[in-house]
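Lab channel / #folding
Pinned by the channel admin:
"Please post every new chain as: sequence first, then the structure tokens as a reply. Keep commentary short and put observations after the output so the thread stays searchable."

First post following the new format, from NK:
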Amino acid sequence: MFKKLLPVALILLFSAGWMTAKEKAVPLKKFKQTDIGNPAIAGSSLIQNDGIQIFAGGADVWGVKDQFHFSWIEQSGDFDLVARIESLSAPHMYTKAGLMAREDLSDNSRHIFFQVFPDNKPRNKNNGGFEFQYRAEKAGEMKAIYPASSVGTPPFPVSYPNTWIRLKRSGNEFTGFCSTDGKTWKIYTNFKLDLSKKIYLGLAVTSHNVKESVKAVFKDISMIK
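Reply from TO:
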């Protein structure tokens, strides 16, 4: 009887240990905060319970210069950052919140920004709530990677409070993932950009309405190991 049960017990113990080690919460006190690009309405980050609440002004993260609030940690090398965006207010249809890997804290820095909108209404070439954006050259125009179809059922919808977002770096390849439960992930896109090894990694939020701030709530912030 013991010999038959032992393998099952070992499998259960191994599985439990693997799940614990695979995902590790990021200590919220490690996050620093700053406004990028001197927005008219100053932003703020507040650690609250098991998450970070961000209020942000800013004209946009787009074009050749950005205005937004950034809550960040210093990161060197590869990473796999996960967060659940519990809520996002909508002072503008192009309000944005998401995960950013930024080379420096200037307003025209090269960066990767995997982000969400407040809802799934059609926007330009995007009929869903997620979008992958990047600035490949310092002070250069930002660009975006859109879903394959701009009509019909959104392939990458947001569903607050269960909007999970994930940004992974492996060498110079960045991958954006979406999920509704934080367990089953769908790849949005892969993109290669030779950002410096040391970057500023964190939570970026912009209002897009210079006269009104946006509120975004990030929970379950962790690194997949």
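NK: Confidence is low (pLDDT under 50) at residues 1-21.
TO: also worth noting, The radius of gyration is 18 Å.
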